[in-house]
């Protein structure tokens, strides 16, 4: 599987010819100035919650790519009002079939409102299955014991976890999250974009290594094998 990082919590996973894009926030992110969003192609766009730093480019990219947008009911409804009709609304605990993948919506401890102040429903994470491989994108969340349920159901190839602290868990809790969900390989996101989430990345990687886990921090625009 290939993962391309577009900065903050935006990334694309590609497997078996299917491209899944998560939490598009690119054009407002100065660190992602080198990413040309007009070149992004996706079959599905998954939105974890309504905050602007996860949805800023969703309408533009949904229209550009024609991708199906997966989100909770409230966000899917709001996207409809912005002219995005190809949506897959869902809610926590549900699993939906998508082109080349399935996605289960799981709990996240956070908040969710849309950029114009509209109620954004509850924040979520996703466990995605592509072929025989599964991965977990936690969205914005605190550490929660609910993550243990993911390990009981799925053998994760990797997890994408926030590590920036302040608005989500920091690296120390993300190590525990990786243990709970059973992921040995973690892609860290939601760090260094803004001053309140600036972290010591070497210390974060050391914390994961101390536990026998791998923390991958791809450069913005880079594609890695996961
Ligand atoms: Ni958020
Ligand atoms: Mn966020």
CATH topology: Metallo-beta-lactamase, Chain A
- The overall pLDDT, averaged over residues, is 98
Count of discrete alpha- or pi-helical segments spanning 4 or more residues: 6
Q: Work out the oligomeric state of the chains in this entry.
A: single chain
- What is the helix content? 10-25%
Q: What class do helices, strands and sheet pairing give?
A: alpha/beta
Q: Which strand order do you get reading across the main beta sheet? A: 6-5-4-3-2-1-14
Describe the secondary structure blueprint for this structure.
Layout: E1 2-5, E2 11-15, E3 18-22, E4 44-46, H1 52-55, H2 58-65, E5 68-72, H3 73-81, E6 87-90, E7 95-98, E8 101-107, E9 124-130, E10 133-137, H4 147-153, E11 156-162, H5 171-181, E12 185-189, H6 201-210, E13 214-216, E14 223-225
Parallel strand pairs: 3-4, 4-5, 5-6, 10-11, 11-12, 12-13
Antiparallel strand pairs: 1-2, 1-14, 2-3, 7-8, 8-9, 9-10
The structure holds nickel (II) ion (NI) and manganese (II) ion.
Summarize, please:
Helices cover 22% and strands 30% of the residues. The chain is built from 6 helices and 14 strands.
Structure description:
There is one protein chain. This protein has about 230 residues and is α/β, with parallel strands linked by helices. It has a single domain (about 1-225), classed as Ribonuclease Z/Hydroxyacylglutathione hydrolase-like (Metallo-beta-lactamase, Chain A). The chain has six helices and 14 strands. The strands form two sheets. It has a seven-stranded mixed sheet with strand order 6-5-4-3-2-1-14, with helices on one face. Strands 7-8-9-10-11-12-13 form a seven-stranded mixed sheet. Helix 5 (about 170-180) links the parallel strand 11 (about 155-160) and strand 12. Helix 4 packs parallel to helix 5 (about 170-180). The protein is globular, with a radius of gyration of 16 Å. Nickel (II) ion binds near residues 49 and 51.
């Amino acid at each position: 599987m290939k993962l391309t990082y577009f900065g903050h919590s935006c990334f694309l996973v590609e497997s078996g010819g299917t491209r899944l894009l998560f939490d598009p926030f690119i054009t407002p992110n100065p660190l992602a100035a080198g990413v040309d969003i007009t070149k992004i192609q996706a079959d599905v766009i998954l939105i974890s919650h309504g905050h602007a730093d996860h949805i800023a480019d969703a309408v533009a990219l949904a229209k550009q790519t024609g991708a199906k947008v997966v989100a909770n009911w409230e966000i899917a409804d709001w996207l409809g009002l912005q002219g995005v009709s190809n949506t897959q609304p869902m809610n926590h605990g549900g699993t939906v079939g998508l082109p080349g993948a399935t996605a289960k919506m799981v709990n996240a401890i956070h908040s969710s409102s849309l950029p114009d102040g509209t109620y954004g429903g509850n924040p979520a994470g996703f466990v995605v299955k592509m072929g025989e491989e599964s991965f977990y994108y936690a969205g914005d969340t605190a550490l929660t014991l609910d993550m243990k349920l993911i390990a009981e159901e799925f053998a994760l190839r990797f997890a994408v976890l926030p590590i920036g602290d302040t608005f989500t868990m920091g690296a120390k809790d993300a190590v525990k999250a990786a243990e709970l969900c059973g992921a040995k390989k973690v892609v860290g996101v939601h760090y260094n974009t803004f001053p309140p989430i600036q972290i010591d990345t070497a210390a974060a990687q050391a914390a994961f290594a101390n536990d026998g886990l791998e923390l991958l921090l791809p450069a913005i625009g880079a594609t890695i094998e996961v």
